[in-house]
Amino acid sequence: MKMVTGDFWVLLAMLLYFIVVVLIGFVYAKKSNASSEAYFLGGRGLGPWLTALSAEASDMSGWLLMGLPGVAYFTGASDAMWTAIGLAIGTYLNWKFVAKRLRKYSEVANNSITVPDFFSNRFHDNKHVLMTIAAIITLVFFSIYTGSCFVTCGKLFSTLFGLDYATMMVLGAIIVFLYTFVGGYLSVCTTDLIQGTLMFFALATVFIGSVAQAGGVENTVAFLQDIPGYLSGTQIATPILDAAGNQVVENGAPLFGAAGEYGLITIVSGLAWGLGYFGMPQVLVRFMSVRHSDEIKKSRIIAMIWLVVSLSSAVCIGLIGRAVIPTEFLTQSAAENVFVVLSRMILPSFACGLVVSGIFAAAMSSSSSYLLISGSAVATNIFKGLIKRDATDRQVMIVARFTLAAVLLFGIIIAMDSNSSIFNVVSYAWAGFGASFGPLVLFSLYWKRTTLQSGIAGMLVGAASVFAWHNLVKPLGGWFGVYELLPAFVFACIAIVVVSLLTKKPSEEIEKEFDTYMDLDV
To answer: Which residues are registered as beta bridge partners of 260?
Structure first.
């Protein structure tokens, strides 16, 4: 295997990339600091390309280049494939049924610049109860999400250069913090455009190169078909593990048991990932910031092409990696490095540096969004919404930046365990947002009878159900083993409908806003 440890050209390529993204933060510093709306929402001036690639890059994170290929490598196609299909369907539905309506309604609802803002203004919540709950949920789950991105940074550098995991994880976190702290939303979205493009070409390049490395499509498929259930959509490969939890290797070959059944409940769990999109703040805020709602259709087409190609490539890289380096990774956590190792095997040093920058790009684009939205949740929704309602823009932005620092530290603490699985950490936070915010977003945009009290109930039931199902119900197995997002989403929807019908209908002013918001030309 070609080694790149200490390779000057790899380091140079990555260093140049880091310099560019930090410089972007400083370039946008003056414009972003003009007001809190500019800092958190870019002044609602994003074009279709920037909107599409920023939404997808910030959403996918290092999970796309490490977590998803790792699952495919370790247990075969089923888990990764059904999850990818669910995400593709969810992305399309979100762009189709939420994007335009949210862009218009967020402006009607007192020019809302954050998702908690929108919830509060949509229901005329003068006491800001809904906003506060939404901000706290945002802070909790984004702290977990941010930690998963820092895990990506640590694994990348420790695998690529043999450097200390913790040191490299902290360094990556600080770089993300710097350009988010200085440049705000515009710098985040502009770097997302660069990073989304880099991620796309990195995946395509390594996918094509790994097929060639494995000796072509026929040889690859023939090798993988010998592993029971590996390429099946209704079965799952079962690695034989030793007492320490590592896959057993015998005569240079990884050992697998009989294929496990991948039944309807697990397929539904994979598809259920798509429900999460309706509640993802980092995606929803992109819809709110697009220049004009008429440009959303073009953004949707760009986003779907990017997503389908990227997801397909990521799954295939994991599968092909098992044929190229069958005994390289003996746990799923370790297997999340398959993209890095294939890159260093296939590519010249400088090109390898650029391609693996795609992983850091993915982690940076997502964690910067998580940091920024967490900052806006605390500064705009809690500090200005509850504590100091006459706060100036300067005071709001100071609080936001202190929050960025706090979330940064919490994310670093979460990421300290080098054995953390990116896929598992992300799945938990994804369920939290999807169930807490997703149902309320849909009901807010489509059902006039939705009330403030039902919004509070829906968010609390959704968040509580994720915790309860994941920790208490899911371990029971069988039908209870379904991904917690699905039951929590359903329970939240039921709570919203029941409480809405049991409480007083919205005021005439709220109903008038609902009836006319789609007529707005923005």
So the answer is: 236
Q: Could you count the other beta carbons within 10 Å of the beta carbon of residue 218?
A: 9
DSSP-derived letter for residue 499 is H
| CA pair distance 165, 336, nearest whole angstrom | 14
Please tell me the distance from the alpha carbon of residue 381 to that of residue 254, in angstroms, as a whole number. 52
Greater pLDDT, 106 or 139: 106
User: Which three-class secondary structure state does DSSP give residue 256?
Assistant: strand
More confident residue, 341 or 9: 341
Confidence of residue 115 (pLDDT cuts 50, 70, 90): confident
pTM over 0.90: no
Burial class (CB in 10 A: 0-12, 13-18, 19+), 475: exposed
Angle at 72 between CA 410 and CA 356, to 5 degrees: 60
Start-end of H helices in 63-128: 68-75, 77-94, 100-108, 115-122
Phi, psi of 167 (to 5 degrees): -60, -45
Helices (DSSP H) in 447-484: which residue ranges? Answer: 452-468
* Residue partners of 390: CB distance under 8 A and separation at least 6: none
Interatomic CA distance for residues 66 and 49, integer angstroms? 25
Give the integer Cα–Cα distance in Å for 378 and 383.
6
State which amino acid sits at residue 294.
Answer: D
State pLDDT tens for residues 283-328.
998 899 898 999 999 999 999 999 999 999 999 999 999 999 999 9
Read off φ and ψ for residue 124, nearest 5 degrees.
Answer: 50, 50
Task: With CA atoms as reference, report the closest residue to 66 among 151, 144, 189, 166.
Answer: 151
For 379-406, the three-class secondary structure string (H helix, E strand, C coil) is HHHHHHHHHCCCCCHHHHHHHHHHHHHH
HEC states along 292-323? CHHHHHHHHHHHHHHHHHHHHHHHHHHHHHHH
CA 138, chain centre distance (Å): 13
Asked whether 338 and 266 are in contact (CB, 8 A), the reply is no
- pLDDT reported for residue 6: 45
Instruction: Give CA–CA dist 522/100, Å, rounded.
Output: 10
Containing 236, the helix (H) or strand (E) segment is strand 235-236
Percent of the chain topping pLDDT 70: 90
Please, which pLDDT band fits residue 4 given cuts at 50, 70 and 90?
Answer: very low
Long-range contact set of residues 242-246: C-beta below 8 Å, sequence gap at least 24: 245/331, 246/330, 246/331
pLDDT tens profile 242-272? 998 899 999 989 999 999 999 889 999 999 9
Residue type, position 290, single letter = V
H or E segment to which residue 250 belongs: strand 249-250
Instruction: Name every residue whose Cβ is closer than 8 Å to that of residue 223 and which is 6 or more positions away in sequence.
Output: 214, 323
Q: What is the pLDDT of residue 364?
A: 66
**Residue that the structure tokens 């335009």 belong to:** 100
Rounded Cα distance, 290 and 100, in Å:
9
